[in-house]
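To whoever is on call:

I kicked off a structure prediction for a single chain this morning and the downstream step that reads the tokens threw a length-mismatch warning. I double-checked the sequence; it's 307 residues and nothing unusual in it as far as I can see. Pasting both halves so you can look.
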Amino acid sequence: MMNIEIYDAGFQTLFPDNAVLEELFDQAIWAEGPVWLPKENAVIFSDVKGNCMYKWKANQGITIFRSPSDFANGNAVLPDGSLVTCQHGSRSISHTDLNGTINTLTTTFDGKRLNSPNDLVVKSDGSIWFTDPPYGILSNHEGYQAPSEIVGCYIYCYYPEDNKTYLATFNTMRPNGLFFSPDEKTLYVADMSSVEFSQQGLHHLVAFDVVGHQLQNRRTICEITPGIPDGFCLDKNELIYCSCEDGVLVITPQGKYIAKIHIGKTVSNCTLGGVHQNELYITATNSLYRLTLNTHGFQYDYCFSKN
């Protein structure tokens, strides 16, 4: 039996009595960016430092999806079921259509090259919201070392319909993972400047109100410990499943810790997928895991409502 620590007995039923954490793959260097592809019943995830992307399907196991991947990191799906990806190497957001054709969507803001888009989430209107910390340009380990052309690390919104990138907010230090609330009125963000500033840096989940293509009213949800918040996802009840140093913390929208899934490796990200969106896919250091829950996600509902 896996080690699940429950802090609030009212959420005991979130986990099935026979819950088993399955390790599906363990050959990555740094696994990241899991996303469920509803049209394929498959998970795509990145090995950032390995410069490749993998696909996992229940009836096929692991196959290489793309190699080299241009140091791909975060992934998401558009309403038509196609894939969008953060690419450190080209400092861009790319789109892979349903035929496998790859096109670049955005690489600049205000005439300046982006730092290294890290994670992204798609709104039901098709807009793509992404974070832009510098990790892909700090060295050649997960990108190409280069100076930043933008003063800070911000959150952006790209609209495919008008091919424009907007600055959503500059009120972040080191934004990383991000995810909408079910009603899309709130955007949750991991702000993790403690990576650079260990003593006084942030390792917090924060939230913003979504107003058009702007983010307003920043507030702190909670401090993540141990470690830092990297990627995360939400379920239909707005519970947050957040990465930390040795597992996944389950947190209410008010910032209360209610449970922890102990994995024993540093977790980078997670997503709820599967046919019923009740399977939590977790990337942790070199591995991909799966855990079935008594809840459901909502992230991929728009992929079917548009068809």
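Update from on-call: the warning came from a stale cache, not from the record. Cleared it. Sanity check on the structure: The radius of gyration is 18 Å.
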